[in-house]
Task: structure prediction
Amino acid sequence: MSHGYQAVSWNRQKGFYDLAIAAGVTIYLGLFIAVGSISFPYATPETLIIRGSGSAAFILLHVVLCIKVLTAWSRDRQRHRTGARSSTVPSPASLMIDGLTAAPGALHAGQVAGGHNLAS
Result:
């Protein structure tokens, strides 16, 4: 690794973010256990806690995975809006998103979605 390790410096915004995540997971688990105990009266509290924790982890995993995609998409859209061009090759996902948002008939021969020329 070329970069040295640097500890995360905590600030007020990150503290609020952590509290919001902890509160959201706690509320989700409470609702999951309440609805689960009504829907499945024979389920034990331990079973409901394990199932709720597993489903919360699954949901949080998808939220974290979506954050990277959405920030990259936002960055690409901002770059497109300002007219700046990057020297990187566009990702297939950005080509697909640009193709979905393009007006019908906006692409010309030799172009793919996003206005990228296949010849270059």
